[in-house]
Amino acid sequence: MAAREQAVTALEQQIVATSITEGMWTVGRDIEPGTYRTAAAVSDDCYWGIYRSGSNGDDIIENDIVSGGFPTVTLREGQDFENNGCGTFVKQ
Mean pLDDT over residues 15-27, rounded? Predict the structure, then answer.
């Protein structure tokens, strides 16, 4: 039973590391680098932003206000990512 619990815990940690919910996340610490796409189509306006880590959102690398479709972002170490209302981004 303990081996199964460890396997489930490892899988849950992997899902968390490759899924981005709402909030501000640091790439390489909170989430893995890579390309992410929303799991579901965006139906209302949402905002996402990529910033230089440690800049408190002041050093914008790329951002967008999206009102539909499946937003896709590519994240690298040394960046922070903000997801505001876009749903869950999933690593591709």
Answer: 87
